[in-house]
Structure formats: structure tokens, C-alpha cells
## 1
Amino acid sequence: MSIFLPLEKLKLNMIDLRSDTITRPTVEMLEVMISAEVGDDVFSEDETVNRFQHKIATMFGMEAGLFVPSGTMSNQLALKVLTQPGDEILIEEKSHVYNYETGGAAFLSGLQIQPVKGVHGKLDPDILEHRKRGEFDWEPNTTVLCLENTTNKGGGTCYSKEELNNLKQFASQEELMIHLDGARIWNAITATGIDASYFGKIADTVSVCFSKGLGAPIGSMLLSSGKRIKKARRFRKMWGGGMRQVGLLAAAANYAVEHHWPLLVEDHRRAKAFGEVVHNSRKLEIDTNSVETNIVIFDVLEGTAIEVVSLLEEEGIRMVPFGPKTIRATFHHQISNSQFARLLETFSTLFS
Ligand SMILES: Cc1ncc(COP(=O)(O)O)c(C=O)c1O
């Protein structure tokens, strides 16, 4: 039985743009996994994950890192260590934490979420003005500002350094801590050129994922101060996320950072080129300014998103409905040049 067979089939048949999480480990990645030095990480004896946590924490200007199974766990651990039950967090209404984490902030940390409408999933101090509460006994205590970079539902947009600076200033004035959901921070760094260490200056906790565009099979990391990470480690164990020979996964994630991060440039180039084809299609609508990284969100002018996604499926193209009229396509490194050419050709034929 070959683990590679499904990928070959996938390559031949489907142009799968449903998500950048659908990529399979490459042969080279599997090789580094097999040869990783491992130990029991519940005893902190897995040197591969220890080295990797240190490396990523240093890269982002943070004291410590904690390897976790998913971006969801990483975000939820961050909120847990930053807040007290009954606190309120400010977050953009399209964000993953608010929409796609099964109400975890309420269930796991007893938090109230105040969703705020931003622009393409992004917030700024003007939008956030007067949103912080807690002056009176009867108000919730707003303690955390949660940002997403790049935005997912916002269309892969990212914050500029100036925007981040303004938000940091605002948060300091308002005495808010910042959690940054950086599931696709690698795309943001690629697109903006902002150094990773800068995010450690902006945020109190940062969550990064290796299983999105970087293409590792599993793994995210929470980054923060040593004290907070120590606390998060206890909750990770409580929530069933303490792992044993996790160096296998850390080795894959490290390989992804080293070898797949540089490939994101090409995903971004393709997303822009595809966005232009969508823009030139009479039956589709897009705000091309929103295409900054590997995600392309567009609207269908005829029929519903579900109908168009089914039509595309018949043409060997997979995307996801993201609203009644809205579709998302996400680019990743396991789309070949010929598949990309076929994608553009099919769209030009079907929707012009
Ligand atoms: C912005 C963002 N944050 C967090 C997550 C959660 O990651 P996971 O699926 O690993 O839990 C995702 C997943 O797609 C995401 O897009």
C-alpha cells in the first residue's frame, strides 16, 4: 500500500482549492519525520520538539513556544491564559475564533465575545473606539483584543506594519492585551516583508500554524512569555493535548518552515492572476484589492455559490461555498503548473 497514491490521483484528477490544509506530506517531509530524534514530550524529553519550540519562539521574538495539535487549540489556550471567566474579548466578526471554534471561548474560558465589523476581516482603532467596557460594575471587563493575520474569511488580507503599530498603541492606551491568530502568519510575512520578530512586540500571545499553506500534516504553536506558556502547558494536558513522541510532527513542521515557506510567493502570484481572471468574467464579481495572499474570495452573479461549486466539481475543480453567493479558492503548493493553466482556461470558458 502506498501513502503517495492518493496524492497522485489528486494531482491527475482534481484541482483542489478548497483549502491550503488539504496538502499531503511530501516524500522528503516523510523522510525527516522518520529520522527525527524523539522522546516523551509529556516528560519534556522530545528534543526535536524542544528545539523547534525554541527556534520558532526566538523567530517571533517570544520567550517560549508550545507545540499543539491545532490552530483551534492554540487560540483557545491563548484566551485561557490571558483572561478570567466573565471577561470580554474584542474580535472582528469574520474571525475564526468567533465563527469556527464551536463556541470554545465561552465553553472553555467563560468568555463573552464582542464581535466588531471591520474591513476585510481587519480592525483599526477608529472602528474599536468606545468598544472597551468595564468602567462600571455592571459591565463586562474587556481584556483582550484578538486579531487575525492573515484574515481567512476576510479574503487573506494582512495588516501593514503601520496598522499593527496603531493597534498596539490603541491596545496599550485601553489596557487591552493582544492575541494574534497567525494561522497564516507565514503568508502575511511573505506578502508584507514584516520581520517575524515584530509580531512578538505587537502581541502578548501569537498562534501560528504549520498545517495550512506550509503543508505540514499536523501542528500549530502558541508563542508567549515563559510564564504563560507554562500555564498553557497545563491546560494543554487537561484538554487532552499532551503528546508523546511528537518530534515526528515537529520534524515535519520544521521541514515545512524551512522548505515550503519560500513557496508561498508562488501561491500569492497565482491567487492574484486567478483574481484577475475572475475580475474579467462577466458572471463573477471580485474586489481584486482584497487579494493579497493565497486566498481568493469572489461572488457569483448568476445562480448560487452551491450551484457554481457543483458545476466546478464536474470540471475537476474544487472550491468552497463561503456564503449564499460567495466562493473561496485557496492556493497551495500542490497545484501543478498545468493544473493552474487548466483552472484559468476553465474559468475563462465558463464565466466570460
Ligand atoms: C485563521 C484561522 N485560525 C485558526 C484556524 C484553526 O486551525 P485548525 O484547523 O488547525 O484548528 C484556522 C483554520 O483554518 C484559520 O483559518
Note: Residues 70-72, 75, 96, 148, 152, 181, 183, 209, 211, 220 surround pyridoxal-5'-phosphate (CB under 6 Å).
## 2
Amino acid sequence: MRIAWITDPHLNHCALAAWDRLISQVLECQCEAVIISGDISEGEDVVFQLRRLADAVRLPIHFVLGNHDFYHSSIDRTRAAIRNAAAEHPLLNYLTDSAPVSMGGVALIGVDGWGDATVGAYERSTVRLNDFRLIDDFFLAAPSLWKSILLDLGQGSARRLQSLLLSAAELHKSLLVVTHVPPFRQACWYQGQTTDDNWAPFFVSGQCGDALIDFAQSHSDSTIDVLCGHTHSGGIARMRDNLAVTTAGADYGNPEVAAVIVISDGQVTLERKAGC
Ligand SMILES: [Fe+2]
Ligand SMILES: [Fe+2]
């Protein structure tokens, strides 16, 4: 089985020629499904973009949302709209809201994830993402509450991930996990380096990382492959013998298939985009 993996396509930044290139790439990969690890567009048109993509490629699309997907809206409103869209469109599967999907001996699961202020130095950080201005949950809250909102979002994702990992392990030994924000600092690349304390609070989904490590250690017979994006810079971090995280890069305005995921005999391998 072959699956085209796209991350951070930011389709609202995408001219028609870039859109056509992306659709051609997906079709040329001769895949049976598509995975998107978030930042699909922004809150006001993410449903439109997902429907448009599904109608263009005519393949099942398994996706999670990234922080940009909530811009100009609230987190609850966006997730509700996405759940409705996925219920109505037979090709759209919002992994955050879905049971594990069995694919050729591999269990596919996903959660949105969030840079949750658990890694790095939140109090000393000079970084203030657009999230705080453009997502209602932050914009309508006092800045003194932002850290607790980030922690809650991270905790929500981590709890959901824990439950999905346990359900997925009942299906298969090989698990494929899709999330937007890298769950470890080691998987959070920028210009070939892992992120520093200034950016880490917003670029690492630390509570999801803890859930993954706990699961990997207590299920040594399972293999966990994690796919993520968010930093727009790629790399691979092997966190345990049975836990690897691949972060894919992305360019605004030029969305691409990052890799083809090949599932064969219950094993997951990644074919980089040159091979698709
Ligand atoms: Fe992004
Ligand atoms: Fe992002």
C-alpha cells in the first residue's frame, strides 16, 4: 500500500499553478490514500480546501489540523466544522476524531498536537506566535492565561493520543502516528539544528512526547513511526529502538508530497519525494 504524505500545504497561500502541481504529484505517486499532518489552510476556509482536495484527488484523505487551521476562528468552532465536513464527505477522515484505521497490517492514528509550553523556557521566551493574535481562544484571553491554555491543549492531545495508542496496539504491532507539532525537541528542526529554548515552548508538543515514550517503553514489541510538520524544516529523530519521528519540511506557496509511505507486510517505510 502506498500513501502520499503532505504536511503544511497552507493551501490559502497557493496559486493555481502550485495547486495543479500538487494534485499532479499526488496522482503520479499512484497512492491509495493521502495523509496530511496539519496547517492545511486557515479557519475560514479549511473545510473548503479539504473538500476541494478530496474532490480533485478522489482518494481517502486522513488528516490532523495544525495551529494555522484555527486562525480567524476558535479551536472548538473549527473542530466542529471539520467533524461535520468529515461526516458528510466519504473521503475525509479527521484522525483526531477517528478510531484507528487498519491499513495493510499497520494501525494509523492521529492527533492535532500543540506546542504546549512544556519544553524550553516559556517565561523567558521572546517569541509570540501569530496564534495569540489570530485564534480566538488566545486573543480573547488575558496573556497571563496563555501558558495554561497551551498546557491544556497539549494535555488534551496527549490524553487522546494515549487512548488511541492503546486501541491501535490491539489491532497491530506497527503503529503510524500523524500529528502536527513535533513531540520532541530532537524532532524539531530548523536550518539543520534542533530548536532552542526560545522557540521550543511553541514548537514541541511535550506531553504527546511523554505519552509516546511511555507507550514505546511499555510496548517493546510495537513499532511506532510518527509523522509531523509545523517547523517547515525536515529531519528524523530516533527516540527509542521502536520509536522514530520524521518531520517533513514545507514551503509556503509551494505545497509538495513530502514522501510516499509504503506499507508492506505490516512494515512502514518512507520513500522520499524523489522516488514518487
Ligand atoms: Fe505550517
Ligand atoms: Fe504549524
Note: The longest strand covers residues 106-111.
